[in-house]
Structures are given as structure tokens and as C-alpha cells.
Amino acid sequence: MSVALTVARYPIAADGAVELVVDEAHFRRVVLEGMLRARVSLDIATADFKAMLVPEPGRSGRSARSIVRILADLAGRGVEVRLLHAGTPSGAALVELRRGMPAMPAGLCIRRCPRLHAKAVIIDCAAMYLGSANLTGAGLGAKADGRRNFEWGIWSQSPALIDGVLEQFNALWEGRRCAGCRRKDVCPVPLEEPDLA
């Protein structure tokens, strides 16, 4: 495995290799150095979507913000946020989406595909996490040691790898796979978006 180098905003692995991300490193790499630094776009694929609490870096005590609020704030700053998930969001996530949001904020779009099991976070089409972690505190390492999942993934800035994953993401996002799907029994409304009313 290559030694990690720092280039621009995103640390990358030498020679286009990928960096292994394990367990609690998910929080630093994917959330702090990835999602929170998005400037243009943030594409997230996850099987499970919960109102993960994100401890605020550099703040003492138990100060934390919901990932739902963070995504809405990113959208408010002009970042295009697309979240594709499989199951019904947690009750806390739905409450957070409805709180102070009569409609989904412009720039934040959430869709559901019950067959999705892939997990990826693509930041500004320039850096990507691809691995086992869902968009949950236990998955992305925001929980304490002994409470988080054992997760493995890769971090990469490989344009070819990112383009390939984005093509798969877009095929689902745009409904190009819906016509041939044989699970309409669990997906009566393809690519449904949450009702905030």
C-alpha cells in the first residue's frame, strides 16, 4: 500500500492508489475531511439513513449537530446534495427534516430505492469513499469506541473510479434501472422523496 500524501484539500494516496479506511477513521476521513468540506456537490448512497449526530470539531463538551441539519446547511451554501437511500429514514431524521423545513431546502434532494445496498460518498466529483459504512453514527464512527461498527472502505481521488461509481449512482438516481426492476412490490413509488407535510 502507498504512503498517503497531502495534495490540495484532500489527502490522497501516492500513484493513484486507494487508502484503506477502517473503523473510527471513517469519521475523520469521510465526515470531517470529506462531507464537511464539500464546495460544489455531495452525492451519498447508503442503505440506512439516520439522524447521525456529528460532534463539532474544535468545540469542547458534547456539542453536536445532526447530519440532516449539516446537509441542509451545505445546500444553503450552494452545495448540490443528493442522498440516495434504501430504507425509511429513522424517526429522528424525519423529525429533523420536518423541523423548520416546510419544504426540502433547494439544493438538497433525497430519494429512496429499496434495492440499494451500496455505500458511497462522493465529494465535489473529486474525492470518494466507497465501502461498508451507512450514513449512521455507528457506521461512520461518530459513536464512542465499543459502540461503533467494524467498517472497512477505501478513500480515493482516482477519476476513473469516481466516474464509474457516479455512473452507477446516476443510473439509480435517474431511474434508468426502474423499468427492469422486479421488486416493484417493495417500491410502489419509484424514487420517492420524503413527504414533509
How many domains would you count in the coordinates? 1
Outline, from the CA principal axes? globular
Low-pLDDT stretches: 1-10
* Fraction in beta strands: 15-25%
Report the total helices.
4
The main sheet comes to: 7 strands, mixed
Order of helices and strands: EEEHEEEHEHEEEEH
CATH topology type: Endonuclease, Chain A
**What's the CATH H-level superfamily name?**
Endonuclease Chain A
Distance between the ends:
50 Å
Report the top-level CATH class. Answer: Alpha Beta
Give me the count of strands.
11
Architecture in CATH?
2-Layer Sandwich
3D structure, described in words:
This protein is an alpha+beta fold and 197 residues long. It has a single domain (16-173), classed as Endonuclease Chain A (Endonuclease, Chain A, 2-Layer Sandwich). The protein is built from four helices and eleven strands; from the N terminus they run βββαβββαβαββββα. The chain has helices spanning 25-32, 67-76, 91-98, 159-173, and strands at 4-7, 10-13, 19-22, 41-46, 53-55, 64-66, 80-85, 108-112, 120-123, 127-131, 152-156. Strands 3-11-10-9-4-7-8 form a seven-stranded mixed β-sheet, sandwiched between helices. Strand 1 and strand 2 (10-13) form a beta hairpin. It starts with a strand and ends in a 24-residue tail after the last helix. The model is unreliable at 1-10 (pLDDT under 50).
